[in-house]
Amino acid sequence: MIILDKENKLITLHTENTTYQMKAGAYNVLLHTYYGPRLPGGDLSYLLRAKERGFSPNPSEAGSDRTFSLDTLPQEYSTCGVGDFRLPSIELELPNGSRTADLRYVDSEARRGKYALDGLPAFYGGEEEWETLSVLLVDEAAQVEVELLYGVLEKYDLITRAVRVKNRGNGTIRLCRCASLCLDFIRSDLDFITFNGAHVMERCPSRAHLRPGVQSVGSVRGASSHQHNPFVILCDRDANEDYGLCYGAMLLYSGNFLAEAEADQFENSRLVMGLHPYQFCWTLEPGAVFTAPEAAVVCSPSGFGQMSRQFHRGIRRNLIRDPWAGRRRPVLLNNWEATEARFDAERLISIAKEASQLGVELFVMDDGWFGARNNDRAGLGDWVVNEEKLPGGLGALVPRVKKLGMEFGIWIEPEMVNEDSNLYRAHPDWILRVPGREPSRGREQLVLDFSRSDVREHVYGQIKAVLESAHISYIKWDMNRSLTQVGSAALPADRQGEVCHRYVLGVYEFAERLRRDSPGLLIEGCSGGGGRFDGGMLYYTPQIWCSDNTDAIDRLRIQYGTSFCYPVSTMGAHVTAVPNGCTGRVTPLETRGVAAMHGTFGFELDPGRCTREEKETARRQTAFFKEHYDLIQNGDYYRLSDPFQNGPYTAWEHVSPDRREALVSLVTGTAHAAAPLLTLHFKGLDPALCYQVNGEGSWSGDVLMKAGWPLPIPSGDYQAFQFYLKAD
Ligand code: DGJ
């Protein structure tokens, strides 16, 4: 609910459990008054106190009032160079050379429905569930308008933010920073949690007290990155899964981003999140508008679990788009870990035959099917079927797979090119490069300039022809290197600071076109695993390959970290062969299956190399996953333990929205003699209902949550157990 009190310039947003408020105070400076547990309303600006502070300047309109300072009062969208020395949200270079921004409140409007952002991903939904607030700020001296947009999805406590900047003057303005979210708090006794890692070890949570000064994570790699995820949390220092105030903030963006938290001199704090200002500069000619990507925040007054469940619901129902928002995704088998690029049609068919016996519904042909792609040094850019490997092309192969009762999917990496390719030989100027420097290679590939529509058009044409050559129902869209020497031959020197963002907009345009031209096509995002796992890509690709690390035990950590923001239905997860290629670890097949059920579930091995018992296990797991698909993919998710604590087990739980069903999954660590006998407390059940556990007995939800469930004693390392609960 949005309440506009125009007379007092007071704006209040209510969600089911939270309240957010701002007020245009003296001199029309838009102050942030409150964000936290839901309140009845009223003017909360009494919480803000103006006090004279040394070296905190006062706006000129304040005359001799030395107490009003931009440097000390909480701002709704911070400015720069005019008295607030904390993190800026916006930085402008004006025609006169000054780099200042001073914004004042002018007006606000509220309406039902959700705003959309041209060419950018955004949460969506109908008028019955969303409200939009638009707040107009103006910098009169700069002749710049800033529109702050807010979307309110009450039932999930989700508030989205976006920003539009318009040059309404006669001169050219350069926008050097434009954050999507600024959130001020009149306290700094908070923890800052970020999700960090590397290729094959993504999104590991790191938690630390907010310290005086600025702490930040971000990416300057051109993609949101394996190293830091565009999702962060600020929370009470004692917040845990079930207790404490926490604020999660995600950026729906797949390129360079920056998330900064600052504790200031008076123990206030500020979170700013948006496009990374590194090498960014956008030219705004008179009349031009720049739109910053969307951010979304959830405040949970009762711990991380509730915060995650609200994000999961919002992402599943208001970010992932039809037809895959509600539709069951197929169980797939991908050939990559079985064959890499060394395959031909007969090898694929032999794997596909075995896959079909397991209950697999989609066969995915990974990297290696096109051009001269026999290894990773050649072929990228030539999206033409390699008929030496696949005689007769996909027109011959796909019907054979479909005859086995499975759909067919392919791998692509549209943004990249190998020097050893026809595309590069014909268009060496189509790559990202800067004059006078040789481009760096990554995995021996170069990056196509996706900021250019002619480059995208060419690649799209080739891929479209492949899609039209056979019935293809799935695409895995990969991206296997970071961007360097980011320059475009198609833009003038003074617009090179736009290339990185234009590249991401190009990726979004390409993805949107694929969706539009091939309705029903399921696209799985991927960037060497989870190097572009973000809310931006999820708008186009309902699932993303979570990591190239498929070791079941490492996956428990990666998937745990990922789950703080993203639902399990978005996490690509497969059962692979052992010893695992990343870790050399051998885990039981049962355990690999249970770990993969913390995601979209599928296989990435040659079932022909499995024993009869292993095939039977895989068949049983596939059937189990399909049977409980709704519960796992659309249920409420609970983290029952933290795998980073190296405790005796990792456990998680899915509970159906009506709380009549639950599935608890658990994987043990290394075995030890004389181990304690453990009890696990379930969560999220209905205390008043009685449940059967794995088809037996009848225990009240209250008992299972408070007294717990005795765990079986594992024999050996890395054992998996599942408990299916059904209400009587
Ligand atoms: C990286 C991906 O993450 C893998 O799953 C696989 O598709 C390879 N690329 C293929 O080159």
What would the keywords be for this entry?
single chain, 728 residues, alpha+beta, Beta-galactosidase, Chain A, domain 5, TIM Barrel, Immunoglobulin-like, nine-stranded parallel beta sheet, 38 strands, 19% helix, 31% strand, binds (2R,3S,4R,5S)-2-(hydroxymethyl)piperidine-3,4,5-triol
Description:
- By secondary structure, this protein is α+β, with helices and mostly antiparallel strands.
- The protein has three domains: 317 residues, alpha-galactosidase from lactobacil brevis (Beta-galactosidase, Chain A, domain 5), CATH 2.70.98; 234 residues, TIM Barrel, CATH 3.20.20; 90 residues, Immunoglobulin-like, CATH 2.60.40.1180.
- The protein contains 13 helices and 38 strands.
- The strands form seven sheets. The chain has a nine-stranded antiparallel β-sheet, with helices on one face. Strands 28-27-26-25-22-21-20-30-29 form a nine-stranded parallel β-sheet. Strands 5, 10, 13, 16, 17 and 18 form a six-stranded antiparallel β-sheet that branches.
- Strand 11 and strand 12 form a beta hairpin.
- Helix 9 runs parallel beside helix 10 and helix 10 runs parallel beside helix 11.
- The longest helix has 19 residues.
- The two termini are 38 Å apart.
- The mean pLDDT is 97.
- (2R,3S,4R,5S)-2-(hydroxymethyl)piperidine-3,4,5-triol binds next to loops.
- The site of (2R,3S,4R,5S)-2-(hydroxymethyl)piperidine-3,4,5-triol (DGJ) has 11 residues, from loops.
